[in-house]
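Exercise 7.
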Amino acid sequence: MHIASSRKNTQSGLRNTVMILLMWFSFSLAILLLVLMPLAFTEIMMSGLAKLHLSADAASLLVLFMLFGGAINIPILRFHSGRRICVQPLVSHGVFGFHSGFTKATNETVVAVNLGGCVIPVGLALFEFTRLMAADSGSFWAVVGVSSINIFICYDLARIVPGIGITLPGLMPAFAAAGLALVFLPQEATPIAFIAGVAGPLIGADLLHLPQLRKLPVGMLSIGGAGTFDGIVLAGIIAAYLA
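Solution. The predicted structure, written as tokens, is:
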């Protein structure tokens, strides 16, 4: 009896030790992924921007601006939502994601554009478009065609989720933009893919769904509001990286 009890205690101790080791391994792996994923995405961003013929310094600055610009929302429109909602006081001034512990009741919704998730990538897309037009490579219709198809794809795939906003399969717009750009005009695939990658989520997912978004009881609708990890940035950068 004593031997059996001792063996059972030993097995129980080993089982507990294994469980503790597995828990620590899982925790360490999660921490490692949290550290490595942003680094990996930053590397993809740098590579994608380099393919747009930007210098290493310019690419680094853009990545930094997009990272830190993700905290800045620029209000462009206000409208009455038709119902009173509780929001953080700073939301009406474009500060989103800062929780002060205080709320105020309002029936006003602010529409804003995110600096890092919308303004900067759109500005870069416009720069690439003007560069393509200046090169006179016959790329105008390729840009229009690829962008239009990607806009339609994003419009069809986008879903409005109350309390969250618009959800969109993250990589689909990027794959579509890159693949279509390679088909339409392979020699200029990278800038065309980037332009279409930005236009798809911006126009197809966000702007064309704005009338439906107005019905959501939220204090702020931020276009590109997820900053660096918003669909506009992800689709544009990854499309350029893939093309």
